[in-house]
Amino acid sequence: MNRPAALSGFPELLPGPRIVEQRVVEQLSRAFELHGYGSISTRAVEPLEQLLRKGETSKEVYVLRRLQAEEADSTDSGLGLHFDLTVPLARYVLENAGKLQFPFKRYQIQPCWRGERPQEGRYREFWQADIDIVDRDDLSSHYEVELPQVISDALKPLPLPRMTMHVNNRKLSQGFYRGVGIDDPMAAIRIIDKLDKIGPDGVAGLLEETLGATADQIRLCLELAQINSTDESFVDRVRRLKVTDPMLEEGLEELAAVVGAAAEQDPGLVVADLSIARGLDYYTGTVYETFMSGYESLGSVCSGGRYDNLATDGKNRYPGVGLSIGVSRMIIPLLNRNVLAATRDVPTCVLVALPDAESRRDCDRIAATLRGRGIACEVAPAAQKYGKQIRFAQRRGIPYVWFPDSGEVRDIRSGEQSAADVHTWAPPREDLRPGILRRD
After folding, report:
1. CA 279 to chain centre
2. Which residue, among 244, 275, 243, has the nearest Cα to 168 in the 3D structure?
3. Angle 327-336/15-34 helices, nearest 10 degrees?
4. What is the pLDDT of residue 329?
5. Which residues contact 239 (CB under 8 A, 6 or more apart)?
6. Alpha-carbon Rg of the chain, whole angstroms?
7. For the whole model, what pTM was predicted?
């Protein structure tokens, strides 16, 4: 059999990098649960009619089909792999609304599949971590304030580059464009969303060509997009443009609450950036995009917003607000550039040395006792000279070797060796499990 070739866009991590991914997921889960979010897991497939509601994704959906399905067999027809976790959430809420307690706070960390061109930070199979708060009929705006605080608590303990969350409010944008006299504010939002790609001149041209915007209207739209601040001062800068609309005022108030609360908890995390548009029509309130310092070319690694029409059963409406962290997008480029690494490539903390083949059962008992106390360990594979067994531990990154014949344990990094009781000895906390190392 020839050596298999890697599949582009389907990353597979070696044990060390996989440890980094696991620790990131553990930290996210822990932070989400501290804020009261419960974990759910949904199936990998959804009906195509649901997946294709956002028309721009139609070329990216992987369809489910059995290889040897008969032509008339429709068992799996109409199913596709989910490309995000928002569509599954909408379906899950509708199916289980009678069993859920609202407001419903959930987190979900699962793989997704998207048939797009693979590139750095964009993969065909990737891990995503979502948090959402969903309510019935109405959702308090204070949850829009809460989300940056949750993300701060989730990401700050990790040795990642500095994160900056850019926020705007859809009511602010719509109200402003309506206030300057643009007839189709949603179309204006979709055009402003292209600002980073086509620049101010390109946006001005589209506003004029598509919406018939005047020179004054274009100037005001571009001036709004240039406003950003890490505190509530953006409110006065918007008002100095002398555009008035009730929706604009509502959006200014809501965005000021988000920015003000974030500035108090984690100064510099949140920036009011009125160029952030997020062109999808379903957003109705605060929108978020998060960038890693020095890795802005990856795009946003944590995005989302408020949506008042997540799902409806005809009688009840389920508004929500949520954020999606692109776990793979965030960490795989850092792993590939050796910015992040595991402190060791195996979970093993202690190697129990094997004096001779006859001692294996005794060594197994020592290992079982250590494992029973939460210390990961393994017995040496062969009864070789101790020097070879120590080198075996060094190659694998195992920090400690236990010598059963002398009842001593050695830290093979420092060479220090001392007597130890298998019932009481414990390594320093930082050695108990492998962690994440940041290489600057």
Report:
1. 20
2. 275
3. 140
4. 96
5. 252
6. 27
7. 0.91
